[in-house]
Prior knowledge:
By secondary structure, the protein is of the alpha+beta class. The protein has helices at 5-11, 18-27, 91-99, 124-135, 146-154, 252-262, 272-276, 298-312, 335-344; strands at 2-3, 42-44, 58-65, 71-79, 85-90, 105-106, 138-139, 168-178, 181-194, 200-207, 221-223, 245-249, 266-268, 286-290, 293-294, 316-320, 332-333.
Amino acid sequence: MDTSIQDLSQRLSITDFQIELDDIASNLGIAPHQTYKLDGDFHSHLEFDNSAYRGRTGYIGEWRTTKNGIRYPFVTFRTQRHGGQSVVFNGYISVLDKFEGNQPISSSKPIVASPIKSMHLPNDRKREALQRVWDKSLPSAHTDAEPLRRYLRNRNLGDVVGHLSKVVRFHPGLEYWENGKSLGKHPAMLCRLDSSKGNPVSIHRTYLTEDGYKAPVPCPKKLMSSPVAGVSRGAAIRLFKASDTLAVAEGVETAFAVHIATRIPTWATVSAGGMATLQLPKSIRTIKIMADLDRSGAGELSARKLAKQLLIEGRDVFIVRPDGPIPRDMKGVDWLDMLRKEVVA
């Protein structure tokens, strides 16, 4: 008797997708859950239960079934940190990867003995998606990239315009998707994440308006899924060529602000989770960790985790924090806020 992919997909549990879900959570700077509940309800991440992000940072998931009977998980992660980010995990592709298409597999053999692709091997669909977005983008100095340059000037980051590296590009019309629905196309700033070995692993997107502001979409900042689960761990957006001294910050705009203020090459880790797991080339001996000051304490905690690892590696490490206190109407203070304060003053 043969068992189809439809039957086998019914046997899968959420634990079969744990690695991919944990990878997404880590990229967003939120602690992975031991178990994920796919009941259609919003589940706040535990680390935010007593913070300003309660009820707005977490995930919502459900099991879905295609018309031809293939069951798969669909999970949306959301965080309000750094202006808001959202990443959708569509497990349908992962189900197909596990069973290599809709071919019958003998039920007389254990599922693990069937021709299954490892989730640690490259996902060609994700790689092709990343390449398509990058191929359709333009250099930041291109005439048509003015919305990107306006955005940086509007954020008081005009000093970096004209000095942007090749990891920062502009997309003239990138489609925005939310919960499987297209909400139209928008200009976008693209920033490439490179692994600790210097290989491209993902793209961070900031959706914009033509006049240089964040687009009016639910989450204007999103990170694309990596083609290999876990490969983005330790990665960073290498905004400037590093010397033996490097500054690191969470957000892209925050990193630009640090560079403007210090003239030190600065990389962005995208999130607090990215900060905590950052891996740096051995040639970098002195690191200034430009921590975020936020009510949850996640920024300082991730800075301390990174500092501990870098000290073990024998490097010189400094943690630099913005001046407090945090204003009542703000969730936190970062180095872009400090730069803005200077400009206004």
